[in-house]
Amino acid sequence: QVQLVESGGGLVQAGASLRLSCAASGRSFNRYVMGWFRQAPGSEREFVTAISVSGSSTVYADSVKGRFTISRDSAKNTVYLQMNSLKPEDTAVYFCAASDLWGDNSSWRRGQLYDYWGQGTQVTVSS
Which residues contact 99 (CB under 8 A, 6 or more apart)? Predict the structure, then answer.
């Protein structure tokens, strides 16, 4: 029982930074594994990163390791995606997702794990 609203997307140049936010409405934010996925035009939705309920464990796709950082603020019911050194290949609609299944880390990459999804926010990176 959670509603997710993403914000922070926009147009940036390659090499720039951007921070996405996902605000959760509901009483169970602190019980959910939170993830970020993205979907480029003509492509399948792909996993970007995820964070454990406590925030103590994170998983990243190889394509964003060292550049992106996921974090969560329980007091604000918000999960963030800090994106640095952006590349044109990062252009996509970014979706926030929540899962109450509490699978192990290896399962977090699967979109089917997540029960709730935001509407997405567009990130466009120009050359």
Answer: 32, 33, 34, 35, 108, 113, 114, 115, 116
**Alpha carbon distance 49, 58 (integer Å):** 7
CA dihedral (42, 10, 34, 26) in degrees, to 10, reads -120
What the block records as the tokens of 4 is 């997710």
Q: What is the pLDDT of residues 73-102, one digit of tens each?
A: 999 999 999 999 999 999 999 999 999 987
| 68 and 49 Cβ atoms separated by less than 8 Å | yes
The DSSP H or E segment spanning 80 is: strand 78-83
- Residue 48: what pLDDT? 98
Report residues of the chain scoring pLDDT below 50: none
Q: Is 61 helix (H, G, I), strand (E, B) or coil?
A: coil
